[in-house]
């Protein structure tokens, strides 16, 4: 039934030890084993009644019956508590692991839809623990069935053969439907993801969708995904119906045949009433355990395994352009940035061709040029999102690929046009980089954000929410600049940070002039006002440096 493969997937995504799962499975087997004891007590009492035993013997069997259920309850409590601990651990562990992996491999959205990733991070992680739980339950129930069939064989081989034959046919029918169910469940999740992608786009851009009147087109995309989801869902429900309605007849027919067969044995003196009661009790457990094997183990396992595989797919994604760090741990960075004959091939085309320029400490270096000039590639190279094909990028004479992660990330910081603001207080947004309140307030004062914050109802404790204009776009960019300052980076890279229009920062030129006193400023822009304030201008076109001008 593929238990080993499913457990292997679970081990890969959670890092769980096989020994822990082994003991958990043994506990489940012990729990099911405890359920085999009460029928022995019941048969014992019947034996006393039919053979003329004493009242003390009945009390003895009754005590055995109570002790059996106490044992079962104790083991079950321990299993439930272990399950609860595992569930908490797996949920938190996997969400953290997924977040870290997605940030490290941000190109994943080119391969896997955002809807699927969100569903996996929020919904699928909840059910991974149940892969282990279902396998433990299934193993324990299969072990229990094997023990019962051995007991049947000890008492009567023909009874055992009939019981095994009935249950085997029942299991074959169920297993066939489980495979179909799993296939259709996987399909339904696929189209749920597509519907979620459409919903995510609508929620992210409701105003634009309304203004451009493109809701009908979005709804058509949603309806197409919903129609295909309904097809898969309907097929899945039919597979489930086959087990609960069509396949159970086999179990009930087999039960009738077996009970008639044993009744004949009792009438003919080949079996005692005591044994009849014992075997009937055990076959009732066979039917119950087989039903539970489908309802509580195999069918849910088909779903949970699909969800575990979805998580595995995300965690298995490795960004092809991931750039490794070196081991140079020199943290005494002055901030001289040099591009030396840098060329870059992307998607089979050259986006940079032999680019050379310098950005010096205590200067503003503006990189200008039309769309497609190669400015974004320069920023991505400095952010280490991509790596050069030839040439060198140096900081203080050392290759940027030789620096350790700690040194590089603490000395090069970027500010993008789409400033990330977490839905939290301004204080908490700053604390993402530095929790020291004095340094937070000093950074905000330096970029001119303190006055705006002082006007807010809760000051630094004001909650910033998406869609609410607590902070204007310009303020959010200033907050991003303040966070960049809190990194204490020597080199600040500003990518298309605007000084005019809707995202205005009226005094951005003055802020940059101040920041250059203790930073290297690299500014990608076409804003005339900002270019005027630059110390050095590098113009690019077609992936090349057209000219460089030192103004001061």
Beta-strand segment tally? 12
Helix content: 55-70%
State the CATH superfamily name of the largest domain: ABC transporter type 1, transmembrane domain
What is the H/E order?
Answer: HHHHHHHHHHEEEHEEHEEHHHEHEHEHEE
Verbal overview:
The protein is 62% helix and 12% strand. It is an alpha/beta fold. It folds into two domains: 3-316, ABC transporter transmembrane region fold (Up-down Bundle); 337-550, Rossmann fold (3-Layer(aba) Sandwich). The strands form three sheets. Strands 6-9-10-3-11-12 form a six-stranded mixed sheet, with helices on both faces. It has a four-stranded antiparallel sheet with strand order 2-1-4-5, covered by helices on one side. Helix 1 (3-14) crosses helix 10, helix 3 (37-51) packs antiparallel against helix 10 and helix 14 crosses helix 16. The longest helix is centred in the middle third of the chain and has 53 residues, at 215-267. The chain is elongated. The mean pLDDT is 85.
Brief characterization of the structure:
It contains 18 helices and 12 strands. By secondary structure, the chain is an alpha/beta fold.
């Amino acid at each position: 039934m593929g238990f080993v493969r499913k457990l292997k997937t679970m081990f890969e995504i959670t890092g769980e030890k096989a020994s822990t799962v082994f003991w958990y499975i043994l506990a489940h087997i012990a729990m099911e084993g405890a359920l085999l004891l009460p029928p022995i007590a019941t048969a014992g009492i019947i034996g006393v009644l039919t053979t003329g035993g004493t009242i003390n013997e009945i009390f003895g069997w009754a005590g055995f019956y109570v002790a059996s259920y106490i044992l079962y309850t104790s083991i079950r409590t321990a299993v439930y508590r272990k399950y609860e601990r595992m569930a908490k651990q797996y949920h938190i562990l996997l969400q953290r692991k997924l977040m870290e992996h997605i940030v490290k491999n941000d190109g994943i959205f080119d391969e896997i839809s955002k809807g699927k990733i969100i569903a996996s991070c929020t919904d699928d992680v909840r059910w991974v623990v149940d892969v282990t739980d279902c396998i433990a339950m299934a193993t324990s129930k299969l072990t229990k069935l094997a023990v019962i069939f051995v007991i049947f064989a000890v008492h009567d081989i023909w009874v055992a053969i009939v019981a095994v034959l009935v249950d085997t046919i029942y299991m074959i029918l169920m297993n066939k439907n489980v495979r179909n169910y799993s296939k259709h469940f996987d399909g339904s999740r696929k189209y749920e993801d597509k519907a979620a992608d459409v919903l995510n786009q609508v929620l992210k851009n409701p105003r634009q969708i309304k203004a451009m009147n493109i809701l009908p087109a979005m709804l058509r995309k949603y309806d197409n995904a919903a129609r295909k989801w309904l097809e898969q869902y309907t097929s899945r429900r039919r597979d489930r119906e086959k087990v609960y309605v069509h396949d159970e007849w086999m179990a009930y027919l087999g039960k009738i045949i077996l009970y008639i067969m044993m009744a004949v044995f009792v009438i003919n003196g080949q079996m005692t009433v005591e044994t009849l009661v014992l075997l009937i009790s055990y076959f009732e457990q066979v039917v119950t355990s087989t039903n539970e094997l489908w309802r509580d183990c195999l069918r849910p396992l088909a779903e949970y395994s699909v969800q575990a595989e979805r998580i595995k797919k995300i965690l298995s994604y490795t960004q092809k352009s991931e750039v490794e760090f070196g081991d140079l741990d020199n943290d005494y960075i002055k901030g001289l940035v040099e591009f030396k004959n840098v060329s870059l091939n992307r998607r089979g085309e050259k986006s940079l061709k032999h680019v050379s320029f310098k950005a010096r400490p205590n200067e503003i270096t503006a990189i200008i040029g039309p769309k497609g000039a190669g400015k974004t590639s320069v920023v991505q190279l400095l952010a280490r999102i991509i790596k050069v094909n030839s040439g060198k990028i140096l900081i203080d004479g050392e290759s940027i690929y030789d620096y350790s992660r700690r040194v590089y990330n603490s000395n090069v910081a970027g500010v993008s046009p789409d400033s990330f603001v977490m839905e939290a207080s301004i204080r908490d947004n700053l604390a993402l980089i530095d929790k020291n309140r004095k340094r937070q307030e000093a950074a905000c004062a330096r970029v001119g954000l303190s006055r705006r914050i002082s006007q807010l109802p809760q000051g630094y404790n004001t909650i910033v929410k998406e869609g609410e204009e607590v902070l204007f776009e310009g303020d959010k960019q200033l907050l991003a600049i303040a966070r960049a300052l809190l990194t204490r980076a020597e080199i600040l890279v500003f990518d298309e940070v605007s000084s005019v229009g809707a995202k205005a920062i009226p005094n951005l030129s003055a802020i940059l002039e101040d920041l250059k006193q203790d930073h290297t400023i690299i500014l990608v822009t076409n804003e005339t006002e900002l270019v005027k304030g630059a110390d050095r201008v590098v113009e690019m076109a077609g992936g090349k440096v057209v000219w460089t001008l030192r103004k001061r």
